[in-house]
Task: structure prediction
Amino acid sequence: MLKAYMVLSIILFSIGVVGLVSRRNIIVMYMSVELLLNAVNLSLIAISADLADSSAQVISLVIIAIAASEAALFMSLFVVLFRNRASLDANLFDMLGSKK
Amino acid sequence: MSTLSIIIFLPIIAALFLFFTRPSIAIVKTVYMIVTLSVLYLAVGLYIDFDPAKSMQFIEYHPWISEYGINYHVGVDGVSLGIVMMNAIIMPLVTLALHKLRDKNGYWINLLFVQGGIMGAVLSLDLMLFYLFWELMLLPIFFMLGLFGYAKKNYVAMKFNMYTIFGSLMMLIAILYIAVQYKEQFGSYSFDLDELKKLTLSTRESLLVFSGFMLAFAIKIPIFPFHTWLSDTYRSAPTGIVIVMSALMAKLGVYAIWRFLFTLFNETSHAVAPFFIGIGLFGLIYFGFSAMTQTHIKRMFAFSSASHLSLIVVGFFIYDVYGLIGSSYLIVAHALSSAALFLMVGIMFERTRAYRIDDLGGIARVAPKFALLFVFFSLSIVGVPFTAGFVAEVLIILGAFKYNIYIGLLTTTTILIAMLFMFKTVSKVLYGELSEATKDFKDLRLHELVALVPLALLILAMGIFPNYFIKKIEPTAESYSQKIGVIYND
Result:
């Protein structure tokens, strides 16, 4: 049973990574990040059930709480970014990566 | 709260306080000065109270996340005492020399923060605590690079950050792995250095964990294949952060190799030592020649720093009492002289607005005091007798000759190479014809002299009376070499 959960978790994680790398819309990228977090959550819960140790489930609850507060923060950042450039294309906000 | 905790947390708390209250720049500078001077006062007290006969002292132990074996555990011994002292000495002097040039709150707040982070990383004896401070130290450097740097600063800040975070993550994985192994062998988690010493790992495991740690330290130092962030970062960084990186952060990487890797994986480190001696010697010569070909003065000093750091790595890995004492001595000596030189390069840039070596020249004719101090600090980097660099390099070379005569000969080339690149720079910058940029060069003002002369005197004292300083390091080194003796006899 654990194997099935882990495979699902790996699939979700891969989708998240591909989405994060290939899509340039900031909201879609944010959704991919959430997918990564949830893949990790799923594997944590599955392993913790398998080992009959509840501490990983506590950690995954903490992760969910952090992800929720992060969502609120991200939404406000999106509003600020959109006001600046009237677009949410990540290529417009590459100030930290440009060689200039 | 005892001395060590105050030394660590006073700068951090002051920085947070200044960040949230947003006072005027004059108040920020005053607070910076008061905090760094009180840290210096406490550190001098620590130095006087330090009993050379015992190794680990002023230990503080408070339970923190005891369930997972993470505790607040700090202490100081002969080698870390040197780093604490030079951190405490350099920080207030930086302000003295730069306080008229920099009028942004963030500059001073970040410097305070980085001081606390470095103190914490040097003093912590718990791996989780160490990791925390190691990351804490990176954050202000990132902000200062991005906010106050020169030319393509954003790109450089991002590259530096990604490079070092990659290394740190490898270290985190290694730390977690040994904690889990400890649980399997002893039944509970522990991140304490004294506890983890008892751990027995198979050769393959300990080699992998060793590499995880080593990657983080090698990137911070940097030793040979991990140096690609070096020249761009040094070029773009503001003076304050260049001093922190070359004088303090890089030394912390070498110190961490000794403190954590030699303690936890003594046999593995001993087995891979020839490899790192090779890399160190190659780096020493390679960085030396790179320094010779640079046209940008900050890049030239960046490579000169890297060359000497490779020498320090060699000194640690030759596994000898002389090598260990010499390396600890060179950590302090090189920190003092490179901090002073980068300070002078910063001062020079503010006056001439020129960084290219070819644009400078003839400064000795218009600014004799500047020229005198510049030559003095260069001589200390080269390792001329009566300077601190000489004592340290001689000790390392002695150790290298005991290890192997060819390694000894190659190590001796450091003095030759350092002489070549230093004298070339000195002759081009200080002598020759006055150029467009240097013809109105003002000599050092009083506050700059007050910052630089103590460093010069300290280097002179360390060169003439080395015994007074070495006697604090020696017992630590000797108790350590007894442990090595066990391995040699195997």
In short: Chain B has a mean pLDDT of 88. Chain B touches chain A at residues 146, 152, 154-155, 157-158 (CB under 8 Å). The radius of gyration of chain B is 22 Å. Strands of chain B lie at 57-65, 70-76.
